[in-house]
Amino acid sequence: MSIDVKQRGSAWRACVRVYGYPTKLATFDTHREAHDWAVITHGEFLAKLGPGRTRSRNQPNHSQPGRAIQSLFHQF
Known about the structure:
With 76 residues, the chain is of the alpha+beta class. The chain has a domain at 1-48. It is built from 2 helices and 3 strands; from the N terminus they run βββαα. It has helices spanning 31-49, 65-75, and strands spanning 2-8, 11-17, 24-28. Strands 1-2-3 form a 3-stranded antiparallel beta sheet, covered by helices on one side.
């Protein structure tokens, strides 16, 4: 999960990324507006996921431990 706020010309672009969900982008006049939107949107994603359901793409999914091993054998 990540929050990114960057200036693009005279506007500010906020980007919220959550693994497994589409990226959300919005453009604002001020940095504060962009950052506030990003924090609120990020919180909404976390609320949807629920407690203990946050994982990045680099963390293994322990609910299916054999799946990672099967994918390795499939590659070779």
